[in-house]
Amino acid sequence: MPGSTCAVRSCTSRSGGDGVVVFHSAGERVRERWIEKCNQPAEWIPPKQLIVCSRHFDASDYERDLKNELLNLPVRKILKREAIPSLELGNFQPNLPFSFPTPCIESTPSVIEDLPTNDTPSCATYEEEIKRLKAEMEALQKSSSEKIKDLEIQNKKMKKLLADANESIKTLNLEKSYIKSDLERIKKMPKTMSETEKVNLILEVLKGTLTKNQIEIMMGHKKFAHWTDEELQIAFTLRYMGKRAYNFVTKQMLIPLPSLSKLHRWASKLNIQPGNLQCVLNVMKCTAPSFEETERVAVLTFDEIKVREQIEYDQKHDKVLGPHTQMQVAMVRGLYGKWKVPVYLDFDQKMTPEILTNLIKELYEIGYTVKVCCSDMGGGNQGLLRDLGISPEKTWIIHPMDSKEKIYFCADAPHCLKLVRNWLLDTGFILGDGTTVSKRPLEALVALVAAPGNPLEVSSCFKLTEAHIKCEKTARQSVRLAAQLCSHTTEVALQRYLPGNDPDEALRLSKVIGIINRWFDIFNSYILYSLPLKSAYGTSLEEQDKHLEKMHNLMSTMRCTGKTFLQIFQKAIMLSITSLQLIRKEMEMRFKKPYILTHRLNQDLLENFFSQIRTRGGLHDHPSPMEAIWRVRMIILGKQSGIVQANNNANALESSKVDGDNFLTATAINVIEEAVAEADPDDPDEVVNADEPENYIPPEDSASENELHYTDVQEEMKGDGIQYLAGWVAFKFKKEFPDLGTPTRLVKSGDMNNNQLPTWVQQLSFGGLMQPSSAWLEKAHLMESIFNKLNGKDSIFKGPNIVATCSRQVLREIADVPEKVIHTFILQRTRIRIKFLNAYAKFRKEQEKLAKEEEKKKKEEEKHLREQERRKIQEEQKQRKIEERAAREEVRRNVKEEKERKKAEEKAIREENRKKKQEEEKKRKAELVAAKEEDKRRKLIEKAATASIRKRKNNLPLPDNPKRRKEVRKYNKLVN
């Protein structure tokens, strides 16, 4: 900062010095605190732009310049906004170099030892200065800890990026080794070969690894190449995986590839804009003739993905895009053909009949007939169906381009399954006969597996956990949890163990779950032939239709508790069942295709596509609108871009179709599909489900009223688990040692005592599981006891050769069982124990955490109670004061009233006296008036008498003399 001088007193740093010092200006929020730290005299006037040099800031006050570090540029000193000067504020040492170590708590300066000396100007006492410096030290430590947390988060991100890069490098190194081996073979070729023969041989050897252009450039025959679309597509796929991987191949492995600018120009030709993707439709039009008519029968699926809400500028089209929150995407796939592609995208746009009709028309014009439309039945899509007149009774519309064609509508089956699970757990169901089912039997079943103080390590119901029942937050979006809860094994477990206080409700719930499970099996088929309900719809039509009819009746007659009308998921399931049956009939009549792989009628492909869009951005899984368009372009152009993807809505169900349908033991052994005979009995990893969550999470409150009943059922479940483990071992060695067990399909119809209940394996199996022989089952229980004796009940042997040691111990006591069978059993049992201990350790930590939280909560409650008691006392004191004040006020009011009463009485007396006086005065005045009147009357009489006399005198005749007459008149006047 040119012309800058540090504002700290005694600091001589100026700009243009040694180049080490950096100057920082104070922000509005910290300006006052910076002024205090400058230690200037009271008369000092701070400048408008307060400048402090970097000598007075700790390393923890700076942010890490990750961008310049990664780009190998000079690292800048970026000061945090809340940073406060803390170093060399008193006795400044001018020529100390600035150090910028890695921030850590230990590097925080000891401000207690650096107390100001006598020559430090300060008006505060030493005690106040110590308190102030302690507060600064705490602030510095807090800032350091926050910085460490930020660095840890950044470190995790960098580690993830590094791991991705290492994985790419590992793959590329492997490819490099293949190329080196090919080159070695080329070097060993006979030297007598002609140049043309050498070139042809090289092309023949490397044609599976490198293209012709790459080989010719590497051999020096050409310096530049006109790259083909196939080569550009392969290069684009590598660029799609990462720029560093692309540079590694070109610069380190020296394999010729198109330049990044060439790829950019090639990719920019694919014009992707909101609306119908015309570039994709053009490609589809070109490829349509290569497909048969049945392969061009299409399923249209649409849904929304969340994007980052921001405004962006599209330089290519010179327009502003955004802000948007959702991106609507429509994809089309073959009902029988193995292809899929996005054909529409737009932002903040719900699917409307006009958009849907226009898209169907364009697909029809280029040779593709949309037969099915699939959605998740969300709020916007419900409005679409209403506008189109779609209902459980009428599940189709007429094709807008062909009146003979119908377009059917289906709901996403995994989404419907989640909704069924959610409503069952939240409200329960009222069945058509008026009876009810709820989650209570399921809670009791989970409590049996994870009873407090006595959790089962080996159990027939190991997959059911409290997470299936609580189902909170993101767990409600998990199809795997829903499929495991509404599975055949849950149905059988409810029938067999009758958990809870109401056995009838357990049986009713078992029946409902069985119907739901069989419906989902039919609507989630991936292979043509398997078990009848897991095969493509139409391969076992009579049985499949029977179970679909049961599901249709269940959805139409039951009601969710507290509701009087059908819910959306019920209508959606009824709609899908009707549509599926009509689609199959039409396909059989038109194309002689009597079957449908029903997984093509759900949204798996769209969820996969969304996963690729999210994972393409690494840690930025919510792209902006422009980023989303760019990622869609890369996915469309990239060859086999689906290799970079994450698990999706129902992806896990595709990779492990039997999850939730069969049992084994406590989280270690993976389920084996009964009807899949291709299982490798020598592959021990086949039975380990690494993606399974820890299956021991005991419930918070699962105490039973009948402990004996709990113990009996737990023992039965443990025995069933050992039986299933023994059956699994027998299945692995069914060809080598057939006497270990018998397939249940051979013992289910006969060989059973009519009075004997079926075993767990027999009750669970559809015919493909192995029923262990009684001799082998007895030896399995003996091996279980030996295993527990050697390892202990809740521990495991930590020495070397744990499996071999335990196997030898078993061989000493059981000599007639093959060693490999014993080894397999002990190996799997060891895996079960390890999984169990890991889960139990995790559970203990969670319990300790819960205990600490409970203790903290208890202390807070006690504190709250004390606070309430204190407030109560304060309120009582306050009330008492109020009452005392009210009493004093009452006394004061009474005194005042008494005074006022006395005053009123005195006033009344005075008023009465006044009235008496007034009466007396009035009477006296009346008497005076009467006297006056009497006197007046008397005077009048006298006057009248006088007047009479005078009149008589006046009646005398006047003298004739005028003068005398005048005197007489004057006299009379005076007299009168």
TrEMBL record:
Residues 963-976 have a biased composition (Basic residues). One of its GO terms (molecular function) is zinc ion binding. It holds the Pfam family TNP-like_GBD. Keywords: Coiled coil, DNA-binding, Metal-binding, Zinc, Zinc-finger. Residues 123-175 form a coiled coil. Residues 852-976 are annotated as: Disordered. Residues 1-88 form the THAP-type domain. Residues 852-937 have a biased composition (Basic and acidic residues). PANTHER family: AGAP005574-PA, THAP-TYPE DOMAIN-CONTAINING PROTEIN. This is Transposable element P transposase. It comes from Frankliniella fusca. The lineage of its organism: Eukaryota, Metazoa, Ecdysozoa, Arthropoda, Hexapoda.
